[in-house]
Amino acid sequence: MPRIESTRRAALMLCGAGLAAPFIAGRAQAQGVTLRSADVHPDGYPTVEGVKHMGRLLQERTSGRIRIQVFHSRQLGDEKDSLEQTRLGVIDMTRVNTAPLNNLVPETLVAGLPFLFRDTGHMQRTMDGPIGEEIGRACLPHNLVALCYYDAGARSFYTRAKPARTPDDLRGMKIRVQQSDMWVAMMRAFGANATPLPYGEVYSALQTGVVDGAENNFPSYLTARHFEVAKHYAMTEHSLTPEILAMGKRSFDRLPRADQEAVRQAARDSVPHMREAWVRMEGDARRQVEAGGAQIVDADKQAFAKLVQPVYDQFVRDDRLRKLVERIRAA
Ligand code: GTR
């Protein structure tokens, strides 16, 4: 089934379910609300498990009045589609990477900038604190209420023909990136040609040679089965871009204030659960792709890091973003 058609069908199905019905104006408590949340990853993936955990907390804390149903495995389309549906109020929540938000909310691109976060701890402290809050607030005028950030490990290159240990190896290769202008510029800086594609199209693009490679963390490399068609994984670790869980402002505004707070709190409280699942899966995924024939090699990270200034020059131009980057570096 063509992607767009299946997405529209899912959206119609959800509308038909009468999303707005349980929210009764004037009531202090929402009654019998099921929040629909989208994810591109399969059941069991740490992001899906994080949102399910949030749902369990919410259900307990509201005596079953508010629940979450997770539509995993791209049932509601790729990330751009689910973001759009969330902004429009067709679905209530979506878990996406920060990258598909970059063109809409420039503050989010800061979180994906190459070699900005020093390590996972630095990323977590930044995103869980005032800087993450500021980035989240910037989503509000676009009808998105940022609830929390999840881990996505480090992204590295994987390629079909030979490993991308250095920028020279990568030169001229067509590399799939997420749909973000900043990510396109990052590939240009590394000497590659960027091909922006939705996640769901990457496997066949790799298989047919439409692209020479892509980049992602181990859990995605495994679960999307990209390791079957691009076997050379080089540890460039060029970005620690985190995930974001966002609720549509329309759905959020329909909830009474106390329930809004319960939603925010449950999201925050789901983060440690997600991160534990993440750590487990990152190690498992690495072992599984190796067992499946992937060749993991070290890369010359310094050589890649030396090339990123043009990305900063192009995208961190205004004062607001410059200050964010400075504060992140100083943290
Ligand atoms: C994954 C991320 C997804 C999506 C995907 C991609 O690591 O969890 O949200 O961004 O990468 O590359 O499209």
From TrEMBL:
CDD domains reported in the protein's UniProt record: PBP2_TRAP_SBP_like_3
Transmembrane segment boundaries: none
InterPro entries found in the cross-reference section: DctP_fam, TAT_signal, TRAP_DctP, TRAP_DctP_sf
Signal peptide (UniProt feature, chain positions): 1-30
Keywords annotated in UniProt: Signal
Pfam family, one: DctP
Matches recorded under PANTHER family: DICARBOXYLATE-BINDING PERIPLASMIC PROTEIN, PTHR33376
Name of the protein described by the UniProt record: TRAP transporter substrate-binding protein
Species of provenance: Craurococcus roseus
Lineage: Bacteria, Pseudomonadati, Pseudomonadota, Alphaproteobacteria, Acetobacterales
